[in-house]
Amino acid sequence: MIELTDVTRTYGRKVAVDRLSMTIPPGELFAFLGPNGAGKTTTIKMIVGLLRPTSGAVRVCGHDTLSEPQEAARLLGYVPEEPFLYEKLSGREFLEFTGRMRGFSPAETTQRIARQTEAFVMADFVDTLVETYSHGMRQRLAFASAMLHDPAVLVVDEPTVALDPRSVRLLKDLLREKASGGTTVFVSTHTLALAEEIADRIGIVDCGRLAFLGTRDDARRQASSPEMSLERLFLDLTEGGNGRESSGGRLPARSEE
Amino acid sequence: MNAAGEEKGDRSNLPQRPEGCCAPIGPVPFFPDPFVARPPLLSPANEARVFWRMRTQMAATNVRQILSRSRLRLTLIVVLSVLLWAGMFWLFADGFTFLKTALPYAATYDRTIHAVFSMFFAALMVMLVFSSAILLYGALFRAEDVPLLLSMPARTERVFLHKSQEAILFSSWAFLLLGSPMLLAYGIIEGAPWYYYALLLPFLVAFIYVPAGIGAAICLLVMRWMPRHRNHVLVLAVAAVLAAAAWISWSLASGPRGTLLTPMWFQQVLSRARFSQQQLLPSWWLSTGLLEAARGEWDQGVLFLCLLVANALMFRQLSIWIAGRVYRKTYDQLQGKDSRARATRPSRLDGAILRLVPLPLEMRLLLVKDFRLFRRDPVQWSQFLVFFALLALYFLNIRRFGSNMYQVGWVNIVSFLNVSVVGLILSTLTTRFIFPMMSLEGRRFWMLGLLPVRRERILWSKFCFAVGGTLVPCSLLVLFSDTMLGVPLFVVASHQLTCVLLSVGLSGIAVGLGAKMPNLKDQSPARIAAGFGGTLNLVTSALYILAVVALTALPCHSYFLAHHSFASALVATRPDLARWLNLWLVLGTLGTSQIWPAAEPDRASR
Questions:
Q1: Which residues 41-100 of A have a C-beta within 8 angstroms of B?
Q2: What is the CATH number of domain A2-43+54-233?
Q3: Is the complex ipTM higher than 0.85?
C-alpha cells in the first residue's frame, strides 16, 4: 500500500508537487498521468525514497520513507524511466547482487533468478555483459531485478518507452498479473491507452496538483459526454499545463479521495 | 505458465480486472504472495560482502577486457609507468647521494632529509585532500548508479563507504607511484633494515586514509551547508593552495645569487621549511616514523605507524558518521538545485569570432558552437588551468638558473626542455579535448550531416578551434619561460616558431586521428580519449614533439656551442662537426616541413 499525505515538494521557489494526498491499496494498478514537468517523476522519487517531501508524509506499507528508508525499500520494486545497470556485470551477476542485497541466501537467489530468467525470456543473454544489451533487454533485466523479491509495491516510471508491441503486450499482462496477485502497482505513463486498458484507477496530475483521481467510469462521469475519451479528459484537465508550470498556476482538484 | 491462482487465496476484496483486459500471450511470471515473511535486512558485514563481491566481479571483467582488447594501451601504460617509476627512482637515488656528499655533517643531513620528506608528504597530503573530495563529490552525487543504490535496502553508510573506496583508489594511485621510488631509493642509499621496507606499505596506506577522510568530511559538509557555493569554495581553496605554493617556492628559492645548493642555502631552506615540521601534521608522523625505522629504531617506527593508523581510523569513522547523517539529505537537496534553469547571455567573444575571424560563415558558426560547449563545461578544462598554473609557477622559479650563473648551453637545453614539457601538456590537452570532438559529433551527425556544409569544413573548423585554443597558452608559457631564463632574442623567436609548429601539428594529429578512428559508442570524452585511438594519438603526438623539438633544438644548441670559446675551438679543430651542424639545419627544415602537411585534417576527412 502507498499512502501520500498532504505531500508537497518544492525546488527553490518552484512547487513541483503541491499537497498531494492519495492512497493506493494492495492489489490495485494505479496509472499516474500528467504532462511533462507535472510532477510525476518527483512523486515517484518520493515514493521510492530518493527524494524527501518538503512537507507531508509518504508511507509504503506503513513505513515512512523518510524515517525508515531501508524498511520501505525492502518492500519496494522500482523500475525508473532509464534504469541504471552496471555495464561490466552480466545480467545474472546483476540479479545476484540485487537478490543478495535483499537478504536472500545464495541458493534462494539462484532459484529466484531462474524464475525471472524464464519469466522474462532472458535465458539467451542473462550470462552476457549488460554493455552488449539492447534497450529491450535492459528493460527486461530492470523488471526482473525489481520483481526478484516479489515486492509488495511496484513502482514503474514510463515502462513502455522504446519497447516493441510484443514487449508492451507482455508488460501489460505482467503488471496486471502482479496487481491481481495483491501487489500495489504504481505506473507513471504518457501512454493514455495503456492506462485506459489496464489501470484500476487513474490519477491525473498537473502543475504538481492532483487534477483527477478515480476509475475510468468516474472519468466518464466527470466529462461532459459519457462517450468522452480519457484523452479528451486529459487534454481538458491539463490544457496549457506545460506553459503554466513555471508561472505557478494551479488547477483546482476535481476529485478527492 | 501462470500458477498464481493456486497460492493467492481469497481476493474477493481486491479490485477486479477491467473488462476485456489483456489476455496473456507470452510467459507470465509466477509471483507468490508479496506479503509473506521477508528475509531480515543484511548485517553490516554481509552488506559489505555483497558490495565487495559486485566490485570484484566488475574489476575482473575490466581486467579480462583490457587483457583481451586493449593490449597496446596496457603495454604502453605499463612501459611508461615503469619508465617513469625508474626515472624517479634514479633521480631520488642521485638526489640522496648528492645530499650525502653536499652535507658533510650528519645532523644537517638528517634534518635536511626530514625536511624534504615532510615537505613532500605535506604537499601530497594537501593534494590528496583535494582529489579525494572532488572525486567523492562525483561518486556520491553525480554517479549514475547512486539512485539504484539509494533505492535499495542498503545502509546509507554502506553506500558512502562503497563510493569512498572508489574515490580513495582513484585519488591515491599517483601518490603510491610518486612516493614509492623516493622511499625505496632512500632505504637503499641508507642501507635501511628489512623492517623499513616491511613498514612502507602499511605507513602509506594508513597515511592515505587521513587526507581521504578529511576530504570526504569536507565534501559532505560543503555539499550539505553550501551546495550553491561549491564551485566558489573549490576555486577559493585552489587559489589559496596555489598562492601558498607560490609563496613557499618563492621563499625557498630566494636569496643571493651564487648561493644555490650550498650548505648555507640548505640551512636557509631548512629554516624556511619549518612549517612542514609541525608535529601535529600526519605527514610529519609519516616521515618521522619511516626515518626512525630506516635508522634501526623499529619501535619508534611502529609507534608512529600506530599513531597514523589510529588517526586514519578516526577520520574514516568521522566521515562515515557524517555521511550517515547528511548524505541522503544532501543528495535530496542537490536534486532540486540541479533543476534550476540556467540562463545564458550572449558573449562578446562569440560575437567577435562571428564578426572578425576571416573564415567562411559556416566555419565561424561551428567555431562558436564548439567554444560555447567547451567553456560551459568547467569540470573538463579546470584541471588544465591547474596544470598551466603549476607550470607557470615552475617557470617563475627558474630565474635562479639565469644565464649569468651557468653555461649558456645549459640554459639553452633547459629552455628547450621547457618547450618540450609545454608540448607534452599540450598533447594531453589535444588528446583529451580535441581527439574526442569528432566522436562526440557522431551522435549529432543527424543534424550536422544534413546541413549544407562540406564535410571538410567541419573538420577544418575543429582544426582552427584546436589551433586557436592551443597556440595562445603554449606561446605565452614558453615566452614566460624564456623571459625568466633570459635567453637571447633569436632563441625566443625560434621557440615561438616551435610553438606554432607544435600547436598546428598536434591539432592536426588530434583532429585527423579523431576523424579516422571515431568512437561513436561512448559519450564521455574521458573514455573516448582513454581508448585505443586516444592512446595512439598521445603516442603519435609525443613522437611529433620529440621530432620537432629535436630538429629545432639541435641546430640552435650547435650554434651556441660554435659561438662560445670552448665550442669554437672544438669546431675549428673538428671540421666534420661543421658539416654535422649544416646537416641538422637542413634536416630540421625538411623534417618539420614534412611533418606539418602529414597532420593536415583534409586527408583524414577523406
A1: 45, 48-52, 69-71, 73-76, 78, 80, 83-84, 86, 88-89, 93, 96-98, 100
A2: 3.40.50.300
A3: no
